[in-house]
Amino acid sequence: MTKSKKHLGKYVDPRTDFGMKFYFGREENKILLIEFLNSLFEGEKIIADLKYKTVEHDGDQEDMRRVVFDLHCIGSDGEIFIVEFQQLFQEFFKDRAVFYTSRLINKQLAKGKKGNDYHLPEVYFVGILEFDMNGGSNVALPRETDRPYFYDVALCDRHTHEVFYDKLGYKMVSLPVFDKQPEELETIMDQWLYLLKHLSTMDKLPSFLDKRIFGRIFAIGEIGKLKEEDLMSYEASLKQRRDAESVFNSALRSGHAKGKAEGRQEGRQEGRQEGRQEERAKADAEKRESAVKMLENGFGVKMISEILGLTVEEIEKLK
């Protein structure tokens, strides 16, 4: 196998599972994760060091084992961060975020300890999302939509908007919504998000990115420097990502196209009823085929139903 495969680009794509672990999940590269997290906290917290914990949570359902890292971050206090990288739309994502942080909080209470000592460390959930949290796919949105790409969520009073509990927070970035151009990158966080989204298409470190922070990524990320087994793992991870994107986007296009086609057919003359029925049958078959592929790629039943217009019962029968 050659390492000069042009279709792979020059640098490992951080948006793949392999890429996220390659850049951020190795002890020797943890400075990159520290810098990235600090950019999201924007001075609210300054992480001096961090320790990796379990990659997966034991006992989770198979479709929920998607937490990439559990981190014990050492800063001014003893913050704990969950970092999850999500490649495509995930059903009940907000529920999962709350679920993970709730479990982390519960683990901080010493078992068998008497008294009312409920002093807890700070817990944060950090999510790098490959979908629009307000609904939608990984397809780039038009700029005029002006949707937020960074969510900084805290537990607040509904009326005064004052923070009720300042030791629990959720910081989530939606990469598809982030569409800033190089001349618009105002903060280090902007530079990080631009890099995450575009690194796989770059051929060198551009002048508009801070060399002191991002130089290491370009130094270690060259695909030509990967070991043979890492190259094979990366190709498999990249293929998985591309296949999932293709299935999702094809399903979106199919759902929209079939809806329009059916709308046009309804206005035709009664004499073409038989043709309309055949078209509908063909469209339904294509929808079911798309649904099967989406199930195989891990999409949730509810999301498939919304995209393709099939009922939940119809999709359940395809499993």
From TrEMBL:
<dbReference type="InterPro" id="IPR010106">
    <property type="entry name" value="RpnA"/>
</dbReference>
<feature type="region of interest" description="Disordered">
    <location>
        <begin position="251"/>
        <end position="289"/>
    </location>
</feature>
<protein>
    <recommendedName>
        <fullName>Rpn family recombination-promoting nuclease/putative transposase</fullName>
    </recommendedName>
</protein>
<feature type="compositionally biased region" description="Basic and acidic residues">
    <location>
        <begin position="259"/>
        <end position="289"/>
    </location>
</feature>
<dbReference type="Pfam" id="PF12784">
    <property type="entry name" value="PDDEXK_2"/>
</dbReference>
